[in-house]
Amino acid sequence: MKYIFLLLLTLVLLAGISWLAHSTPLKKTKVIAGLSPEIKTLARADNLEKLRAKAATAKDFVHKKGYNEETCFFIDMGLPSGKSRFFIYDLKKDSLLRAGLVAHGNCYQYWLEGRKYSNEVGSGCTSLGKYRVGAPYTGKWGYSYKLHGLDSSNNHAFERTVVLHGHSCVPSGEVEDDICQSNGCPTVAPDFLVRLKWLLNTSAKPVLLWIYE
Question: What is the tens place of the pLDDT at every residue in 66-94?
Fold first, then answer.
């Protein structure tokens, strides 16, 4: 009798769990094409809308300029530095491939609160605008890519030695606090740079990098 009672109790419990699973309303979530699991920040509709608006403009730009029409890089400086804000975007499929953390310039302050942008030589600040990712080289920060500013807001980037490079102070995943700051370079995690390196070094055409807020 004891075993029969336990069996009946188990069946009742299972039936109850099944009923709850089918009767409890579930929150619907929109699936974003190409969105990897670690990207949570971009799932907000306003962030995604801003990225897709930039991508729409970038498609026309890269076509006219003869740049890579499949892959484009975007950096949203309006997002916290501890969140994924460097986006690898597939222009053909209009989807996000991957995202990572990236540091912004401290304008040669010990710690820059908020955001400040400048195109002046010696400013140590981030410059907003479109960049052509240039040739790779190995320098002070290891393997790096030269950046050529394409707008009036960043056309001194090459002269300022603003480059795309990796640094161990940038985490591989999202964190609650702000991350380290640079002297104006878009600095990423070393493992994220490896992903960028493969895309850049196999591209037959220049890749566009667009930093915006």
Answer: 999 999 999 999 999 999 999 999 999 99
